[in-house]
Protein: Crotonase/enoyl-CoA hydratase family protein
Amino acid sequence: MQLLKELTLESLEASQYEHLTLEVSQHVATVTLSRPDKANALNMQLWAEIGQVFEAIDQVADIRVVILAGEGKHFCGGIDLAEFSAIFTAKRDCEGRFRERLRRQILAMQDSFTAIERCRVPVIAAVHGAVIGGAIDMITCCDMRYASCDAKFSIREIDIGMTADVGTLQRLPKIIPDGIMRELAYTGREFGAEEARTMGLVNSIAKDKPALDMLVGELATEIASKAPLAIRGTKEMILFSRDHSVEEGLNYIATWNSAMILSDDIQQAMKSRMTKQTPEFKN
Amino acid sequence: MQLLKELTLESLEASQYEHLTLEVSQHVATVTLSRPDKANALNMQLWAEIGQVFEAIDQVADIRVVILAGEGKHFCGGIDLAEFSAIFTAKRDCEGRFRERLRRQILAMQDSFTAIERCRVPVIAAVHGAVIGGAIDMITCCDMRYASCDAKFSIREIDIGMTADVGTLQRLPKIIPDGIMRELAYTGREFGAEEARTMGLVNSIAKDKPALDMLVGELATEIASKAPLAIRGTKEMILFSRDHSVEEGLNYIATWNSAMILSDDIQQAMKSRMTKQTPEFKN
Amino acid sequence: MQLLKELTLESLEASQYEHLTLEVSQHVATVTLSRPDKANALNMQLWAEIGQVFEAIDQVADIRVVILAGEGKHFCGGIDLAEFSAIFTAKRDCEGRFRERLRRQILAMQDSFTAIERCRVPVIAAVHGAVIGGAIDMITCCDMRYASCDAKFSIREIDIGMTADVGTLQRLPKIIPDGIMRELAYTGREFGAEEARTMGLVNSIAKDKPALDMLVGELATEIASKAPLAIRGTKEMILFSRDHSVEEGLNYIATWNSAMILSDDIQQAMKSRMTKQTPEFKN
Amino acid sequence: MQLLKELTLESLEASQYEHLTLEVSQHVATVTLSRPDKANALNMQLWAEIGQVFEAIDQVADIRVVILAGEGKHFCGGIDLAEFSAIFTAKRDCEGRFRERLRRQILAMQDSFTAIERCRVPVIAAVHGAVIGGAIDMITCCDMRYASCDAKFSIREIDIGMTADVGTLQRLPKIIPDGIMRELAYTGREFGAEEARTMGLVNSIAKDKPALDMLVGELATEIASKAPLAIRGTKEMILFSRDHSVEEGLNYIATWNSAMILSDDIQQAMKSRMTKQTPEFKN
Amino acid sequence: MQLLKELTLESLEASQYEHLTLEVSQHVATVTLSRPDKANALNMQLWAEIGQVFEAIDQVADIRVVILAGEGKHFCGGIDLAEFSAIFTAKRDCEGRFRERLRRQILAMQDSFTAIERCRVPVIAAVHGAVIGGAIDMITCCDMRYASCDAKFSIREIDIGMTADVGTLQRLPKIIPDGIMRELAYTGREFGAEEARTMGLVNSIAKDKPALDMLVGELATEIASKAPLAIRGTKEMILFSRDHSVEEGLNYIATWNSAMILSDDIQQAMKSRMTKQTPEFKN
Amino acid sequence: MQLLKELTLESLEASQYEHLTLEVSQHVATVTLSRPDKANALNMQLWAEIGQVFEAIDQVADIRVVILAGEGKHFCGGIDLAEFSAIFTAKRDCEGRFRERLRRQILAMQDSFTAIERCRVPVIAAVHGAVIGGAIDMITCCDMRYASCDAKFSIREIDIGMTADVGTLQRLPKIIPDGIMRELAYTGREFGAEEARTMGLVNSIAKDKPALDMLVGELATEIASKAPLAIRGTKEMILFSRDHSVEEGLNYIATWNSAMILSDDIQQAMKSRMTKQTPEFKN
Structure:
């Protein structure tokens, strides 16, 4: 069965990135955006690395949950405008071909972020400081979001004169109330952690970055202690439900569980309940 | 027109169930889970009876609204684990056939709960005490949920090492915010009535079980006093909207109302407005 | 390119309506329901004019945002029952043909409201006093809703014995939580501005009608100052997302932006950021 | 696991029907419409029995393929008009309720036919003589259709002034070319076996009824000799593909086969290839 | 009920078009493209008029079927290239706005053709001579197509270097086999009437234009003699089925017929069967 | 714009494959399955290479069309059973994990074939000799199929006791008539080139392999001479249409062409028409 992409934990840990770091500890991977002097602004290199690291993590059975965080004062200030504006000076041999290439480029950028969503284990965003523009697109691909009090959010794309095109307008309406979504997208206004919590964008708030790291770390540890196969199935089902009818979702999980339900985990979990001991699961 | 399944109120009231009770009064049916010594845990018998009772109610024009409640200290503690674990010891003649049978079994279990959703009149869940695992799957099929202060909820499936497969992962994401949904599904953590209200899982809270019964009883009486045909049409439309685009929904209601709108109810309702009297509707 | 419907600002401003007024100022159009002696009740004339005015606005590139408000003590008391009840006395030559005509009539009524949604710029509803029945259908077509403290809402259709058929049951479930939605639709109970805000129906509340006008006016001015093409693209994407999967939405915006992204606006916006001046955009 | 509906072959064979017969031989069930003096016209009794017999067959693992045929000179002359016209004289207490009941009645009639499609094993229609109106709706639920030379087909509904409502307009466009479909539906014109074959409605033609019975019998025997689990999976996948995108279909079969593929059948089939013997499969 | 657009036969007949003619006789409308010196090439005026005439016909209950034909030696040679190439010289103030306008222009052109499909009665295309490019887009909106022997077809867009954008690539794959569709679209090769019939693009062939007119005239007369309401319902259902699942289609027709089935037509049709007389239907 | 995967023709031609060959000439790439001693049976290596080569071709703008053929006496005899049966002896640590891995493996195998469909230029299958099992799955991903007289086809999966899971059951029903599709899938019977042509699986037939190569070569040359951007757009639209409604397809192409239509190709093509010279297009 060679077609299947699978990676060992060792080779994952050995991989090198320029603008992000990856640490793994006790089944929890922590991906940290690491371009702190630029507020972790998304240049093309970082953009590509995000896709690569999540695609790699997806292939390592040892990882059970991922934390996505940012180094320095801000989570992420959005797209690197210097690079972005290069599309205006790009040579255009033929208008049509230039546009075709532009479309493929946008699809490739989306795809890097979508790797977060496709990653089979839960991804927790831990955000602080600036969470702007492309950073919003990025965290809507995560399963859950937690913030420190100082976090400042903004769907900033409108202020550089563009229609957001890497996920915010597609995913955020499925996360927060429709009316609020539109106000934020049309005005680009900044909002804080408390408002983000009220609207459901973040689940809860910590008083500062260290407290946030602790909160998210504990949550990750908790999730990592659960039966891995059931966690992966749960993520698949929630994603499927978002884009399908209830009836289609029911049929899908019935078919899925006819294959997956009889795992060692379930026996392990049952036994633990009786012996009142913490279950130990395989990856 | 014999193909149509229709039932009289009398035959409905005459039906017997082992683990639930059914009472009808003034167009309001109350279905009560009744296995109090087991916290109303869902064994296969109870599971089957839930499907049967709601399928029967659907066929009785006299019923205008249903209350679903639980007897004893808890609404429902979830699946009966003793029965559930039997699938591990089931004889497996052929792996493929065993899995096919498992899939059909899950579909059958889902179908019992879906009977609540398919029932043409509104179903109100009144929950107290433990509302765990399969109980969550069950109440997401109801139209609305109300709780007493002591209610404790948990998507518990993850703790027995399984991916929930009878509706929670399909219906709950369409009821509560996506980020919260995932946190609850991944951690299985318990949450109380107040948090359930904040996230939109329950509409409001009563101070205790008797107060809850009163609250829900009044609501049921209120709904039962409305034009029955319009109530049934409203449920159909809300369900249809959940799984279709707005454009499809608009076309559907236009076609629907071209048939249903000219009822006696509407004339009755109009007349009542003028005479300031309470309208009396046919079933 | 004559097929394209386009209108000048002048011809728009010259158009006359019987039951509504249209004012344009600084790229902001204000449509005011104007039948104050009848609480702006929706008779067929007003209903038709709503469709006409939004279809016209859609064709005027100069307009960047629309405010929808009501004159007098109430935003809108719903359908004009006198006209509505005429369908009961309508001559019915053939039952089938009468029903076909009824269906086409409902579709036409829906279509007038849908013109608000189809209008390519954001539409802000500013509501006060009574917001009843058909008025709810109407404001769910708007992008965002704001209210004064005195606003009173009700999905009243159930009380005239009918299943709402001009949009509430299709659009409201995509705006507010499902459980609340059903309670309101089944009971028709009145709710105030604060509750409307909590459930996400309105974004924020002003203390009275003048404060509401100011709040909404400032918001409109803000949106009108943004890059128009990006605003129009944002509305298109949010609407598309509501009725499609995330994957379909991502592909759509990639294709869209391969055409639209290289606008003068984006260059204008970038330049403004550097010069710290307010950008001036073309229509 | 009592929820699952399963039936023994014995109890199936013991069931009695008024207007159809059921024979089982070597895993092949033959359902024969048996109201020959009325050209097997569909009265409500027969209509209901079709649903019942296919629902029962679906629950008997022993049956691997079904033949649907007609006794006497014709396969089926369509709906029994005497019964059908009763809906015109039905008492109508309230227009709205009457229409609601009518809708539920049509859904029930459709459901009887859909039982053929839902039956997990292939159903082969063997048609001769008249195949008119409701008979077309019925055979479009079958997997494949075969005819004798004398077969005469007609989508007759238009000639009794009605829009066909039990399946033809939904399923036939997915079987024959669109342009031909519309011509036949608008004109109700009769067409013969050869034209039916050319358009893809029937797969092949036999010279007379006995030859047809032989042709279809051999085909049934052939299918019954294949691995039953794989045949059932194949039917499920083809049905799913009809109503879903290719991408959804691929994901579904991958999930399905992760459960079903490792059956005894596949080992049996592999072994047979090597030993050049006919494989013997479990039900 | 003023919102509903309805037109009298008289006002329809009084309308004037520059490049097409409209004749009505015995419930049959014949729309003839009439720019014979240009092979009925589609300039913007003709394009707009096609939309107008079919939108008008849709509103006249007297019309029961439409024939679409071409005057002179050819049915239609496709888009008028002189006008089309104007888009290259169009002034482009802002790239983004120019593209937005282009998109709206294409949508408007599509919409004119879609009026044929939306027209509630069947539309029969009678084609002869050249049927090229845009003409193919146009006839795929018709219900059925008939040709004379001399007809020559070509999906010509590829030869002017463009991706066809007014319907061929969306509708033709739902009419002819997929493999053939792609060959024709990629090569733009010409094909004759006989091949068109074999692939299902046209239903049958007449030896020359007069024979075609007779064939199509008789078919139109036949359809016009059927129950009009049932014909209109049939078209609606076939269109709905094309874009929905079988299950959705079944639910739709059940709801539809609960409104429409009890027409005078059905009683008329039944009576005619007994008296063996030709039924006379209301419009 | 580094995220975009693009490849030069040189690096494509330099790539090496074990079981297939790749030749490029005049914008036409020919991929030849090359394991002739095994009838080009699909082992995992070949399977993987098919995905790789089509993914690579997709990134080379120079390639305008692809031919997929087989070396030796047969196009492809299907899956390599020796490798396939290894899944039965695979070590299974945990039943659930084994099934999860199996599912991912099937998805990976599907994905290799889907690379043919995702490749942005047309892919022409030229088949001869045996075209069995997995080979059918593979050619249904191609745009068009052509065969020599000696070709023998069979959906063979049923004969190894499995439900086909790499594309046939998802794509073939969208290519050939539904009734025939099912017969072939249930019986696994062999059929020849002529029958394949009649049912629409292949577009036309050549008398032998050399004639087939000539036929397909000429077709490829013809397509390669067309405007490349328009060809790529056409493929995208046909694929989109297969899985979406007509209305969605129309909106998509309008958006697409607002970006792509103004290419050099269209100007080149127009000029060529006037000068009657063969146009020369950029890649």
Remarks:
- The longest helix of chain F spans residues 95-118.
- The mean pLDDT of chain F is 95.
